[in-house]
Design goal:
The complex is a heterodimer of chains A (551) and B (232). With 551 residues, chain A is an alpha/beta fold. In chain A, 57% of the residues lie in helices and 6% in strands. Chain A has a 6-stranded mixed sheet with strand order 2-3-1-5-7-6, covered by helices on one side. In chain A, strands 4-8 form a two-stranded antiparallel sheet. In chain A, helix 5 (90-114) packs antiparallel against helix 6 (123-133). Chain A is globular, with a radius of gyration of 26 Å. In chain A, 48% of the residues are buried. The mean pLDDT of chain A is 94. In chain B, 66% of the residues lie in helices and 2% in strands. Chain B has 11 helices and 2 strands. Chain B has helices at residues 4-17, 20-28, 30-49, 52-72, 83-93, 108-118, 120-135, 138-142, 164-173, 180-197, 209-227, and strands at residues 102-103, 106-107. A two-stranded antiparallel ribbon of chain B has the order 1-2. In chain B, helix 2 (20-28) packs across helix 3 (30-49) and helix 3 packs across helix 11 (209-227). The longest helix of chain B is centred in the first third of the chain and has 21 residues, at 52-72. Chain B is elongated. In chain B, 35% of the residues are buried. The mean pLDDT of chain B is 90. The chains are: A alpha/beta (551), B mainly alpha (232). Chains A and B meet through helix 15, helix 16, helix 17 and helix 21 of A and helix 6, helix 7 and helix 8 of B.
Chain lengths: 551, 232
């Protein structure tokens, strides 16, 4: 045991093995289907790989115009070599996040060794193990878009800034990493400047010394140079495309109802502060952290929140110890992380967004590890193994239940289950025109382009050229696409009933009465694992009202 | 200085008692309101002065409040499952894969499925867990559960949100070791009770009122005492 505790490399190898098993097992099929955010990342990386351009024909953009969201580009660019190795598939699209999840665990492991807060030698291993199996980490290590990348870069950047407090040379790679972090997710674009500012203010006495200028200046210059691509579209509408997520409406509503008697500017100020604080505290609320999770079913798993319920004990204990030791540099560092990480997410109206605020996972896990450290010191040595064993079994059992059993069963439609089957049908029956309804269905064009591996150069030719010319200013996106024999639009029975068309939608797209009246023939029906119909395809057999597309 | 402190305590007591929650208690149940006020003031004074008689009053009145809470809460712990819940439960139980290991005549996959999703005892345990975390939700007390309001339940902001920092400071400044009995009677015992009976009461979890309001007052008092009164 003593040998194991002193050998950090062995510990890391074991942890990496556990993380690899958990993050790679059934990666292709769980989560079921392929969410549109994954499809758009995967297809654009494929497009970059094949042509050097994104789906709209734009060469190496600084932000990708995914459904008008202008996402930071690092995930797409780092996915390109993976697709070159493994080709485009659900597995390869999700693989990058899985690898980043493992890397984040390693960074967390180093954090636990380097922070002078933990007494037990068992904590780096135990804390990292808990980090691996925590639902929040596992969930985003298995999705094919940029969330885990944000956490990885942020963790690495903050680790380096912490280490730079005692070895100033590290401030250069720290600032470079943090600057790169701004290219991972939208939230990081706002979080990173706040973090650097607070870090410099809190630790100014240890950073701003005359002899350190030779490190600080190149660090800041490098960080600024890295921001040049962001600066190229800084003044365009694309840069602030997420500003509509701010909660203007709730502020106006609260000011008008709760603080009606106050002068208007003051009532708005108080209502704004109330809204911000309510959003902010949600990220620390036991109810959100241990019970209900993200209200968006795509960002959560059934019956399990972002942490296991038992973690509430080390959570509170860790917070208490942190407050008691607040004057120590390590504790101060965690407090800074804890206080600033929820700020960008708390400025948006989504309550408890596990995506936007994944960075809080780092300080929260450090706090929980602090609580665990205290518990280990309280418990007699011979009981520690029993404690570790019971925690592991219970946690893995609940994780297995929620993630590997209930999620594929209950959340398949949320994860856009069924598009692979549609693509398969289209590939097998290329002589029809396909119209996919977009009234309730998530953007179908990207799913089909992904699964059909539609040649990116051809796809780019069929996109409106105005978009490429005004890439960062045409922020309004619409779902109407036409490529090959596929159209995505609202199905219109007054124009789309042409012989040879196959109309695809959900159960409510075309009523049974219309099916009978127009003589439509059901050619396929796709059901999810819960036996719910997700898609139906109807073949048009008569030219009853054909105005748009015909063979 | 000696005249300022009692005035400060009185002022704080009045300030922390004038809130949405106490108004609702006063309108709906005056005896209950009176008990809540006495329990809160005694808690507050106990935190400040550490005198045993204040603790005894607190314990006594929190016990009375517990009976009120029990009788005024719609207890749904042992509620039978609704039709849709039964359907969900049955679907889940059979979703577990067969692991080809049998204990008796049943496959271990089915046994685990039945244990986690089929047995009523497990469902009751999950309900207790849900109640526990709902009671501990800070947003429930200071923001009327905003931004995650519960469906079908009229929410109200129990305490003004600007008191939240003082509540946090109060919690931090309470010396847990010196206040074991106080925390046991005004926090742990009500917490256990609410975990079992839930929070479905139109008057809220008022058994927690004395603790939350007195701790908030304590935090406010400590701040004022530390940064303002000393200067006077």
């Amino acid at each position: 045991m003593k040998l194991f505790l002193s050998n950090k490399i062995t510990q890391l190898i074991i942890l990496t093995f556990i993380a690899s098993v958990l993050y790679l097992y059934k990666l292709e099929t769980v989560p079921p289907g392929l969410y549109v955010d994954e499809a758009v990342v995967g297809y654009n990386a494929y497009s970059i790989l094949k042509t050097g351009n994104d789906e709209y024909g734009k060469t190496l953009p600084a932000a990708f115009r995914f459904f008008g969201s202008y996402s930071p580009p690092l995930q797409v660019y780092l996915l390109v070599p993976i697709l070159a190795l493994f080709d485009l598939s659900i597995f390869s699209t999700r693989l990058l996040s899985a690898l980043l999840g493992i890397l984040t665990m390693v960074i967390f492991f180093v954090f636990l060794i380097k922070l002078n807060l933990y007494k037990s030698k068992f904590i780096p291993f135990l804390g990292s193990f808990i980090f691996i199996i925590t639902p929040w980490t596992l969930f985003f290590s298995r999705v094919g878009y940029e969330i885990m990348m944000g956490l990885t870069f942020f963790s690495l950047g903050t680790l380096l800034t912490y280490l730079a407090l005692s070895r100033i040379q590290l401030i250069v790679p720290a600032l470079i990493t943090l600057s790169l972090t701004a290219y991972t997710t939208h939230s990081q674009k706002y979080l990173i400047p706040i973090y650097i500012l607070i870090y410099l203010v809190i630790f100014r006495e240890r950073i701003f010394k005359k002899e350190y200028i030779k490190y600080l200046v190149p660090g800041f210059i490098s960080a600024l140079l890295i921001q040049i691509p962001n600066l190229t579209y800084l003044l365009s509408p694309a840069f602030l495309v997420k500003s509509d997520l701010f909660y203007f409406e709730p502020i106006v509503k609260t000011a008008a109802t709760l603080y009606l008697s106050l002068p208007q500017p003051i009532s708005f100020l108080i209502a704004g502060l109330r809204e911000f604080l309510s959003q902010y505290t949600t990220y620390f609320s036991p109810s959100s952290l241990f019970l209900t999770s993200d209200p968006d079913p795509q960002r959560s798993m059934p019956e399990l929140s972002v942490f296991y319920p038992w973690m509430i004990i080390p959570y509170f204990l860790g917070l208490y110890i942190l407050a008691k030791r607040r004057k120590e540099t390590s504790a101060k560092f965690i407090i800074v992380l804890l206080c600033i990480t929820p700020i960008p997410a708390a400025l948006t109206s989504d309550p408890f967004s596990t995506q936007r605020n994944i960075t809080i996972l780092l300080p929260l896990m450090l706090v929980i590890a602090l609580g665990l450290d205290k518990i280990i010191n309280l418990v007699k040595a011979r009981y520690i193994f029993a404690l570790f064993f019971s925690i592991t079994i219970t946690s893995l059992l609940f994780l297995w239940r929620s993630y590997f059993i209930l999620l594929p069963l209950e959340r398949a439609p949320t994860w856009n289950y069924g598009f692979r089957e549609i693509a398969q049908y289209i590939a097998n029956n290329p002589n029809y025109n396909y119209i996919i309804d977009q009234y309730r269905i998530k953007p179908a064009y990207i799913e089909l382009a992904f699964f059909l591996k539609y040649p990116p150069s051809e796809f780019q030719r069929q996109v409106d050229p105005k978009i490429k010319a005004n890439y960062y200013s045409l922020t309004k996106w619409n779902y109407n696409y036409k490529f090959g024999n596929i159209s995505t639009k609202l199905v219109d029975l007054n124009t789309d009933l042409c012989i040879g068309n196959i109309l695809i939608g959900d159960e409510a797209t075309i009523s049974l009465a219309d099916v009978k009246f127009h003589g439509l023939k059901e050619v396929f029906r796709i059901k999810d694992p819960y036996e719910r119909t997700v898609f139906i395809g109807y073949l048009v057999q008569n030219n009853t009202s054909c105005k748009t597309i015909s063979l | 200085m000696s005249k300022i402190k009692p005035l400060l305590i009185l002022g704080l007591t009045l300030l922390i008692l004038f809130n949405n929650w106490s108004q609702i208690l006063f309108i709906n149940n005056k005896p209950l309101f009176l008990i809540v006020v006495i329990a809160t003031i005694s808690s507050f004074l106990y935190l400040l002065k550490k005198q045993l008689h204040y603790l005894l009053i607190t314990v006594l009145f929190v016990m009375v409040l517990s009976f009120y809470q029990y009788s005024l809460t719609e207890n749904s712990l042992l509620r039978p499952l609704k039709q849709d819940e039964i359907y969900l439960k049955n679907t889940r139980v059979y979703a577990y894969p067969s692991l080809n290991i049998k204990i008796g005549e049943y496959d271990i996959g089915y046994i685990v499925g039945n244990l986690l999703d089929g047995r009523f005892e497990t469902i009751v345990l999950f309900r207790i867990q849900k109640n526990l975390f709902e009671v501990l939700d800070i947003n429930y007390y200071f923001f009327g559960s905003h931004p995650r309001e519960r469906v079908g339940i009229p929410e109200f902001e129990r305490l003004p949100f600007f008191l939240l920092p003082f509540f946090v400071i109060g919690i931090y400044l309470i010396q847990f070791k010196r206040n074991k009995l106080f925390l046991l009677s005004s926090f742990l015992a009500p917490l256990i009770l609410l975990s079992f009976i839930g929070i479905n009461s139109s008057l809220g979890t008022f058994v927690m009122y004395p603790l939350i309001v007195s701790v908030t007052g304590y935090g406010l008092y400590q701040i004022l005492n530390r940064y303002f009164i000393v200067k006077l």
